[in-house]
Amino acid sequence: QDVRVGIIGVGRMGADHVERVRTRIKGARISVISDYVRETAEKVSAETPGSRVVDTPEEVIGADDVDAILIASPGAFHRDQTLAAIAAGKPVLCEKPLAMNPQDAYEVVRAEAASGAKYVSLGFMRRFDAEYAELKDALDAGELGTPLLLNCKHRNATVLPGFDDTMMVYDSAVHEIDAISYFLEEPVVSVQTVVPRSTELAPDGLHDPLLFLFRTESGVVVTDELWVSTNAGYEVRTELVGSRGASTIGQDIGRVTTQLEGGRWGGSVPPDFRPRFVAAYDAEVQAWINAVADGSNVAARSATAWDGYVGAAVCEATERSLTADGPVEIALEARPS
Ligand code: ISE
Question: Which CATH number fits domain 3-125+278-302: 3.40.50.10860, 3.40.190.10, 3.40.50.720, 3.40.50.300?
Answer without folding.
Answer: 3.40.50.720
